[in-house]
Each structure stands twice: as structure tokens, then as C-alpha cells.
Amino acid sequence: MDKIVRINMGAAGGPKVETTPVGAYAGLGGRALTSAVVSKEVPPLCHALGEDNKLVISPGLLSGSAASMSGRLSVGCKSPLTGGIKEANAGGQPSQMLARLGYAAIILEGKPKDDTLYKIVVNAKGVTIKPDNSLKKIGNYDTVEKIKKEFGDKVSVISIGQAGEMKLAAASIACTDMEMRPTRHAGRGGVGAVMGSKGVKAIVIDDSGCKMRAPKDAEAFKDAMKRWADGLKKHPVTGQGLPAFGTNVLTNVVNEAGGYPTKNFMWGKFDNCTKISGETQAAMENARGGEGSATHGCHTGCIIRCSGTYYDKDGHYLTKQPEYETVWAHGGNCGIDDLDVIAQLDRLDDDFGLDTIEMGATIGVA
Ligand code: SF4
Predict the structure, then answer these.
(1) What was the ipTM of the complex prediction?
(2) Strands 118-123, 200-205: parallel, antiparallel or unpaired by DSSP?
């Protein structure tokens, strides 16, 4: 990860791509790198949707290597929601692939001259950007389907839905998972609106022909990796709770402690909490069956496998297993105790490209 690609979306004559050495940001990755760039290069008083804001996308430092759990992607910018430096992150395949291609970051800069929508392609040959207005106002799922038809199913995609194009402050950025579904979202702070303000609908990442990043000291790396993986497997949370019940394992725990967001945060206990708990969710997913039902990894190298796949009553794929935050936001916080309803809301949020926490909190207020 020794280079950064900057794309000036407002350049005269159309977007301009410039690839430079990582320079002053060497040794940083993920959240440290995205926040460092925003802190150093984005004027604090600029408009979050204006030309001076930057959208920085960076793989974690160990992404692209054989290290377990190393595929987290960080997204940073000035937030249109809070006005502060925002970092949101997601799993999925893009981080591993971007790192294998050698990129420490993609930085989107400037403001487009018109409302043309662009698609960026990153592969071993470099970075290209093309207008593609056929992607306008379609959801993340349809966007990924169109990209799959054009590039095949071995690429990964970072995209926005209609919410990002409309520059809504709750807009997320979607990353595709191992099944090439847009289910992993950098959700917080309206980062999707900033991607929309740059006129970029999707970034297609194709790491074919690239090798896994190699450590300098293979033996020491192998030893550290083994101890790291053993520790994760032995720990009751990462070795048992999360794989079996997902992050929604927290619902019963937090409810018992009296801190569960209930009916627009009015109470800390939800009477029907057991109907939407991680235990109930996993039992239902396992009973319905299907590939990756209650236990699933969202990127290569994940050994915790806290994710899952949610099939509807008829066995059709609906969405990924809703996370703890989605379940409290759309569930307890809205007085909803039906996992199928919560899963449908999760699917809509993922498709429009909306943050489930923001949407659940908003509906709770309404
Ligand atoms: S499935 Fe869960 S533990 Fe595994 S990479 Fe995705 S978010 Fe992390």
C-alpha cells in the first residue's frame, strides 16, 4: 500500500486522476489515514457538500495480507450531518482488494461541473473513470447487478443508492460482501452524501492478477497470526457469542441492564425483547436454512463470522442478518417486535443507501 490515487471531480475538461506515492501518510491506514487526510487537507469551515471537502477511502493497515479480520475499510470526510471530522467503516471485500492493488487510499476531491454520474474502475492496470448515467437513481442492489453483468462476479463494489445521490444526511456507502451483495455499509455521518456530491455512483475494484501482501518476516508474521486467531477462537464473545448469534447477541444483555433503546429512547426495557433477540433470530434463521444462515463471514479472512443471511418465510434471500444496532433502531426504538419487518426495513435501507441507526431513530421520533 504505497500509493494514493486522487481524483479531482471538478477538473477542467472532466475528472482527472493522479496517482502519487503515499508520502507523508506512510505508515497509516484505515481510520488513522482517513482522519489524518481530512484533518490536514479539508478546511474546517468548508461546506460538507462543496468542492473543498474530500472523501477519503482507505483499507486497514493489514488489509490484503493473510492476517485474520484485516478487511475493514475506512471512509472519512467532513460530515454533512455533524459538521465534524467523520469516520465510518465497513466490512466486505473492497478493503482486501484495494490493499492488494497497492492503494493506501482513494481520495475524491473537487465538485463536478454538472450532474453527470461517474463510475470508477480500479484494477491492476490503474484507475479509470467513466460517465455512466444508466446508474442514476437506482438502488445499491440494481447497481451491483449492472456492474456484475459488465465486470463479472469476482470484483467488489463500493456504491451509493438514491439517498447518496440526493445528498441526504443519513446516506451511507455500501460495500459488497463475499456473495457480491451490497450489505456492508459505512453508515454514520452522511458519508454517502459526500460521495454523491462528488458525482460518483460506484467504485469497481478488480484485484485479479494481484497477490496477497507478503510480510517482511514470514515466520514472525505466521506466529503472531496464529496467536491472534487462537485468542479470537478461545474468547467467549468472538469464539462463541458472535458466531452463533451475531451482534444482536447484545439485545438481551442490554435489555437486562435496562439500557435498551425503547420507543424513541423513552424507556430502557422493551417488553417483547425476546421476540427480536439474537437468540431468537439465530434459531429462526437456522430453522429456515439456506447458505450462510445464522453464521457467515462478510469478507475473506474473517474467522469470527458474526454476520448471517436472512431469508424470508418462503426461503428467498432478503438481506444480511440485521445487526444489533438495526434491530434496536427499527425494532425496540420503534415498538416493532417482528424480525421479518425489521429485516425488510434493513433491506430497504441497504438498497436506498441509508444508515439504519439514523432511520430507526428518525422513525422513532415520528
Ligand atoms: S462477519 Fe462480522 S466479524 Fe466478520 S468481518 Fe464481517 S463484521 Fe467483522
Answers:
(1) 0.99
(2) parallel
